[in-house]
Design a protein that fits this description.
It is built from 12 helices and 7 strands. By secondary structure, it is of the alpha/beta class. Helix 2 (about 35-40) links the parallel strand 1 (about 25-30) and strand 2.
Length: about 350
């Protein structure tokens, strides 16, 4: 039986005259044997292809699915060696694109993501409102009531870092793995360069930002049961922060120096130079004052303070420009226009 939530989705396929694959689901699996069959059973009839990617799973989840799942839409892919959740997802992306899928959804096999949410996730893609859609577990306080406190803290810290590294200041919960992507931006992504481990979702946002793809958040409820997570917050947060730092500088250089220069470029250059001068000059004179016991003159203090004040204002102006520089026209719409 078709659920009420899937009817608008199926209608969209009929209305736009789409033929072929439509929606494909990629399910990366590593130690998901106890949950995978229940997850697959909940996937609705609006989905055309389901790719279960066994990421060299020691439990042989892929083989288990082959032997016990009778759904003809399910195809098992097996990685010869463990590539991480990102590597497994990318393998599924490549297969889905080769098979002509127009929309690709990533659904984890641990049961934390409700397959009934897929229609809501894909609808903005079908309507042409977005290139990439992701779940957001922080939209309402009730939706994160069951989230472990360590994950809650880690997500809040990493969300701000992701805003800086991706340029999507309107997006939260960057590590959320419940995502959907349109085939056009998926083909344009340098899939071989995207992080293969747990940083995959955050690195996807970084690369989508470089493409100027439109990303949308969809509120969702998190589900936490007896599944065991392989993520260790004390280890992940420092690693993620370093990678976000590198991506931030890459994004700023490409966006404001390589592709174009504008007023934000000048604000960034002058702001950093003035801040650096004010801080260094102030420290040198403070050390000299402490060493000699002679207080610095008012002019010296002003010469150190004024560049810091002006530099800070310029940096704030740059951030203000950057927060407004979020992509607004989906790549799929641009691609459609170019073919007319």
């Amino acid at each position: 039986m078709t659920s009420a939530s899937s009817k608008p989705l199926q209608a969209s396929f009929r209305d736009d005259g789409m033929a072929g694959s439509g929606i494909a689901i990629v399910v990366p699996c590593y130690r998901e044997r106890s949950h995978i069959l229940d997850v697959l059973a909940e996937i609705g009839p609006e989905i055309q292809h389901i790719y279960v990617v066994d990421d060299a799973c020691p439990e042989k989840t892929g083989e288990f699915v082959r032997e016990n799942c009778t759904d003809e839409r399910v195809e098992v892919l097996t990685n010869e060696r463990n590539l991480g959740v990102g590597g497994a997802t990318i393998a599924g992306y490549r297969k889905a694109l080769d098979d002509g899928a127009r929309y690709i959804v990533k659904l984890d096999g641990d049961g934390q993501m409700a397959p009934s949410f897929i229609p809501a996730l894909v609808t903005p893609l079908i309507k042409g409102d977005a290139d990439y859609v992701k779940g957001n577990r922080f939209h309402a306080l009730g939706s994160v009531s069951g989230m472990p406190k360590s994950r809650l803290f880690g997500n809040f810290v990493l969300s701000f870092a992701s805003k800086l590294s991706s340029g999507y200041w309107n997006i939260f919960d960057p590590t959320n793995g419940f995502t959907a992507i349109h085939a056009d931006p998926a083909r344009a992504l340098p899939l071989s360069e995207i992080s293969k481990g747990y940083f995959f979702e955050s690195d996807m946002l970084f690369h989508l930002g470089l493409l100027r793809a439109v990303v949308r958040d969809i509120p969702m409820q998190a589900h936490y049961g007896n599944e065991t997570s392989g993520i260790r917050i004390p280890t992940i947060v420092p690693e993620f922060m370093l990678k976000h730092y590198v991506n931030t500088y890459r994004r700023i250089f490409i966006t404001y120096f390589l592709r174009e220069t504008n007023v934000a470029t000048l604000q960034l250059i002058l702001g950093k130079l003035l801040l650096l001068f004010g801080i260094v000059f102030g420290l040198i004179n403070w050390i000299e004052s402490e060493t000699t016991g002679v207080n610095a003159s008012a002019g010296t203090v002003l010469l150190a303070a004024l560049p810091i004040i002006v530099g800070s204002q310029l940096m704030i102006a740059f951030l203000s420009y950057d927060t407004r520089n979020v992509p607004t026209e989906p790549i799929q719409v641009t691609s459609a226009k170019s073919t007319l």
